[in-house]
Amino acid sequence: MAFGTRERRWRGLLVEQIRPAAGQLIVDVGCGTGSLLVLLGRAAPGAVLVGIDPDPEVLRRAAVKAAAAGLAVELLQGFAEDAAALLAGRRAAKVVSSLVFHQVPLAGKAAGLAAMHAALAPGGEIHIADYGLQRTRLMRWLFWHVQLLDGRADTEPNARGILPDLMRGASFRDVAETAIVPTPTGSISLYRGRREGS
């Protein structure tokens, strides 16, 4: 999967875009086995890192990976739409997600983004890396292989470029697509936005 998505390339760009800093509460929604959390922790020792994922076995693996890297992370079981509730009143400086939303039904994408907005402090930022608008025939054909695995109903809205509109619909401001990374499985886009306030 790492080769198929040029993981090092887009993850490196994502960490640069997030600009993690010590003391910031950063929440990785759909954290998987914790690879992005480890990169964020290495980039910003002292950042307060929280990972959310619905799969308990994946969270166990994330805990092992974080411990091996010498990082203290908080891991919570739940879906994107649970993000604000799981933080129990805390507000994040940044919420992030990578390769999650293309697998989620349209209503779930909207609900997850709304919960991530609610999880942010005023002025907080959202950062996403995921399959976005597939602009060329080649990228569309490559992404078709992802659709065979993950299902067309959930993935097609991403391929048509819906994520920025959904982010705006969840009340994010200054939404932008900041990078496009062509991969052997289609193009992965980076997005950012912010919650109003300061």
Write the layout of secondary structure elements.
Blueprint: H1 2-5, H2 7-18, E1 25-29, H3 35-43, E2 48-53, H4 56-68, E3 73-77, H5 83-87, E4 92-98, H6 106-119, E5 120-131, H7 137-150, H8 152-159, H9 163-169, E6 173-183, E7 186-194
Parallel strand pairs: 1-2, 1-4, 2-3, 4-5
Antiparallel strand pairs: 5-7, 6-7
Helix pairs in contact: 6-9, 7-8
Which CATH class?
Alpha Beta
Order of helices and strands: HHEHEHEHEHEHHHEE
Number of domains: 1
Strand content: 25-35%
Helix proportion of residues, in percent?
Answer: 40-55%
CATH topology tier name:
Rossmann fold
Radius of gyration of CA atoms, rounded to a whole number: 16 Å
CATH superfamily: Vaccinia Virus protein VP39
Low-confidence stretches: none
Strand order of the largest sheet: 3-2-1-4-5-7-6
Distance from first to last alpha carbon: 38 Å
**What would CATH call the architecture?**
3-Layer(aba) Sandwich
Shape: globular
Main sheet record: 7 strands, mixed
Number of strands: 7
Helices, by number, come to: 9
Helix- and strand-based class? alpha/beta
Mean of residue pLDDT values: 96
Describe this structure as you would to a colleague.
This protein is of the alpha/beta class and about 200 residues long. It has helices at about 1-5, 5-20, 35-45, 55-70, 85, 105-120, 135-150, 150-160, 165-170; strands at about 25-30, 50-55, 75, 90-100, 120-130, 175-185, 185-195. The chain has one domain: Vaccinia Virus protein VP39 (Rossmann fold). The protein contains nine helices and seven strands; from the N terminus they run ααβαβαβαβαβαααββ. Strands 3-2-1-4-5-7-6 form a seven-stranded mixed β-sheet, sandwiched between helices. Helix 6 packs across helix 9 and helix 7 runs antiparallel to helix 8. The protein starts with a helix and ends with a strand. The mean pLDDT is about 95.
